[in-house]
């Protein structure tokens, strides 16, 4: 019986702890938005370059959404349209506008039971105008939650 | 010369013999146990989403080590604001438990130890409705029904007692480490049967079980007191070393021998 006593006490404590822990609702604390990260580089030298101002908006058939509006930055992050395989952006760099069209494929990705799924993308191609942008290249195709460096924008 | 060598050897044997003391033994029954997990049905009362039924069997290899195997069937479904998910499947675990209790205390009835098991899960999963929203708007997707095989390791510290003759109850805390869910890097199951939430590589929880035990063999475990000289030193030094025991096991065939 002496052997049973500590085992019984430990069992009761375990039961209470597990019942209490199983009753709690869990909240989502994870990052759920995959972002396409673009870096600004000086054309010719390839050195990271700070733009005086940058404004990036996305366009849909019915709407325009502003994603970035800031000054003195050398990189910016954009979400991709999770409902389409193409996203169109207007990039206003130091007051001069260019259009970039990004093509990609989408797939669901589990974040956690609490947060559910997100949609990650694989870049397949892009098109851009060249008013101020010299070259826009894909550095890393995967747009995930890991924050890869996806695009290099030379201007 | 030969006589001298002979005397020397005999004296050595006598000296060795003088160190030996009478052996103390304890008889331990080895059991085969078969039982079921009671935590699955209890958790179903708290959480409608999860149905889990498990059976397990174990066989005492010696007074400290038992080999075990478990089979579990699980169905899980979850409806959240941004997804519907369901999975179902069977899992098996095989491994061994090590009893840290001394044979004299455990007597084949008590267990406080740790187990290590390898688990395999054969399951299917489906997410009929996945919604994701960002500044652009809403993206809809789905995951069609697919079948996978997952692997995991399980570390199970726990206790077990013989409640009545032939009836054993016990619980394990488990720490499960996911080796692979087998569903690719993006679509780990929200619930992998036998493992749990596979969005995390580690899962913890507990299992409570009731099992029926049948003794199949008795063994005598030799409990040797410390050597006389060491005991004397121990008595002179501290009293704490008095309880130190070295155990060895000598199998003794006693067919059908119940205590």
User: On the 0-100 scale, what is the average pLDDT of chain A?
Assistant: 87
Separation of the first and last Cα atoms of chain B: 56 Å
The percent range for helix content of chain A is 10-25%
Largest sheet of chain A: 6 strands, antiparallel
Q: Which stretches of chain B are poorly predicted, pLDDT < 50 over at least 5 residues?
A: 1-20, 233-259
Across the major sheet of chain B, the strand order is 1-2-3-4-5-6-7-8
Which class of secondary structure composition applies to the elements of chain B? alpha+beta
Helix content of chain B: 10-25%
Side by side, the strands of the main sheet of chain A go: 3-2-5-6-7-9
Indicate the mean pLDDT of chain B. Answer: 81
What's the N-to-C terminus distance of chain A? 81 Å
Q: What is the overall number of helices of chain A?
A: 1
The total strand number of chain A stands at 10
Hey, which two chains have the biggest interface? A-B, 36 and 42 residues
- Helix and strand pattern of chain B: HEHEEEHEEEEHE
- Give the second-level CATH assignment, the architecture of chain B: Beta Barrel
What is the number of strand segments of chain B?
9
Number of domains of chain A: 1
Element order, helices and strands of chain A?
HEEEEEEEEEE
Q: What percentage of the residues of chain B does DSSP assign to strands (E)?
A: over 45%
């Amino acid at each position: 019986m002496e052997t049973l006593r500590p085992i019984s006490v430990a069992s009761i404590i375990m039961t209470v702890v597990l019942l209490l822990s199983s009753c709690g609702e869990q909240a989502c604390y994870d990052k759920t938005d995959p972002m396409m990260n673009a870096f600004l580089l000086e054309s010719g030298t390839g050195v990271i370059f700070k733009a005086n101002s940058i404004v990036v908006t996305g366009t849909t058939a019915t709407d325009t959404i502003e994603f970035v509006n800031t000054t003195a930055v050398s990189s910016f992050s954009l979400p991709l349209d999770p409902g389409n395989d193409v996203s169109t952006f207007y990039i206003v760099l130091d007051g001069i506008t260019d259009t970039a069209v990004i093509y990609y494929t989408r797939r669901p990705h589990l974040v956690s039971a609490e947060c559910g799924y997100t949609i990650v993308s694989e870049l397949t191609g892009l098109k851009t105008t060249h008013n101020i942008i010299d070259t826009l290249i894909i550095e890393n195709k995967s747009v995930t939650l890991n924050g890869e460096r996806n695009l290099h924008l030379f201007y | 010369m030969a006589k001298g060598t002979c005397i020397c050897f005999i004296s050595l044997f006598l000296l060795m013999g003088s160190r030996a003391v009478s052996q103390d033994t304890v008889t331990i029954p080895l059991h085969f146990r078969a039982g079921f997990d009671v935590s699955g049905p209890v958790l179903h009362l708290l959480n409608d989403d999860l149905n889990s039924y498990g059976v397990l069997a174990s066989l005492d290899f010696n007074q400290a080590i038992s080999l075990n195997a478990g089979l579990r069937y699980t169905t899980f479904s979850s409806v959240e604001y941004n997804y519907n998910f369901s999975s179902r499947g069977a899992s098996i675990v095989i491994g061994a438990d090590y009893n840290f209790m001394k044979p004299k205390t455990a007597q084949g009835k008590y267990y406080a130890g740790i187990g290590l098991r390898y688990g395999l899960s054969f399951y299917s999963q489906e997410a009929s409705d996945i919604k994701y929203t960002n500044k652009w708007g809403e993206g809809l997707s789905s995951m069609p029904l697919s079948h996978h095989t997952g692997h995991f390791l399980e570390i199970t510290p726990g206790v077990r007692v013989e409640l009545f003759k032939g009836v054993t109850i016990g619980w394990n805390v488990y720490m499960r480490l996911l080796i692979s869910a087998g569903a690719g890097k993006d679509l780990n199951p929200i619930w992998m049967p036998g493992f749990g939430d596979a969005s995390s590589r580690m899962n913890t929880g507990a299992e409570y079980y009731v099992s029926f035990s049948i003794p199949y063999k008795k063994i005598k475990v030799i409990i040797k007191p410390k050597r006389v000289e060491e005991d004397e030193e121990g008595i002179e030094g501290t009293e704490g070393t008095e309880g130190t025991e070295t155990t060895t096991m000598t199998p003794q065939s006693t067919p059908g021998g119940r205590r």
